[in-house]
Amino acid sequence: MKNAIVFGATSGIGKSVTRILIKEGYNVAITGRRLEKLEELKKEFPDQILVKQNDIQQIEDVEKVFNEIVLEFKTIDLVIQSSGVGFVNPKLDWDKEQQTILTNVLGVTKLYVLAYKLFKEQQFGHLVGISSIASIRGSRAAPDYFASKAYQKSYLEGLYIKTKSIKSKKVFITDIRPGFVDTPMALGDQLFWMVPLEKAAIQIYSAIKKKKRVAYISKRWQLVAWVLKIVPAWILKKMM
Fold first, then answer.
1. What parts of the sequence cross the membrane (predicted)?
2. Average pLDDT, integer, range 71-79
3. Which of 32, 87, 108, 215 is 20 to 30 Å from 134 at the Cα level?
4. Domain boundary assignment for the chain
5. Are 88 and 131 in contact (CB under 8 A)?
6. Percent of the chain at pLDDT above 90?
7. 116 with 162: CB under 8 angstroms?
8. pTM value?
9. Three-class SS state of 214
10. CATH code for 2-239?
11. Which helix (H) or strand (E) holds 217?
């Protein structure tokens, strides 16, 4: 059986993808702040789930939990980073900005580094980061969230380029860029092309199986990404 770690498995995408991994024969270590939610998921699959409570904002604890899981599983085939926070924050409230940075930048970077170093040592492994369509451009309503996703996108690309130095060529980096998925993380009021959570999870797992470098969820959001990349900032200033 293959071994996976899902950071941020208490709800949403992380929880749904965990269910798929279990059904596909993985042993899965799940992490998150809300222990009761993790325990609920373990009750569904008691023999295949390892629970580790973790707040990704606590950088030292991220490494401690990661190492404990590796010690238990011996080898790790797949790491999925699904932890994240985001706020509509037009007034730039600092507490919200700080939470976003601590989770989406510092905590996520720590996990990416741990996963990459482990996979280089193992000479195999697959790191999957859940970034966002928000990684393409900025936003007046949530500048911190959009910027943090742009950071993740760039960092994952850097790690992908860095895999050239790994002799085995069996280390893979995947950037998942969802549009609006029906979870609490969908920011804003006027949302379109909302993807049902289960459909999103199935498409994410399909991208993982195919070891895609980048995958938009759903695929139609690739068109939105293409438009966003070419639209001048002055037009976005009027629209967003």
1. none
2. 97
3. 32
4. 2-239
5. no
6. 75
7. yes
8. 0.90
9. strand
10. 3.40.50.720
11. strand 214-217
